[in-house]
Design goal:
The chain has helices at residues 3-15, 34-73; strands spanning 19-24, 27-32. It is α+β, with helices and mostly antiparallel strands. It has a two-stranded antiparallel sheet with strand order 1-2. It is rod-shaped.
């Protein structure tokens, strides 16, 4: 990966508040930004909860159909 590509990726992560950058002379020191990481964790938790609810509803629906098919066979 080229230096400009790495710089662009770091810039995007910094703008997204995932990384912090500190300048020390000619160096740039990067570290994780807790605020951005916290936002990502919250978003992931929301997505997990959403899909858990959707999959639970799908399971209920499939069980309902299965019971109906068994009832119809009798």
């Amino acid at each position: 990966m080229s230096s400009p590509a790495i710089s662009q990726h770091l810039k995007v992560l910094k703008e997204a508040k995932v990384l912090r950058m500190k300048k020390e002379a000619q160096k740039r020191i990067y570290s994780l930004d807790d605020s951005g990481i916290g936002e990502m964790e919250d978003w992931l938790l929301d997505i997990r909860n959403l899909w858990n609810k959707r999959l639970d509803n799908l399971e209920k629906y499939l069980l309902k159909i299965k019971k109906e098919k068994l009832r119809d066979k009798k």
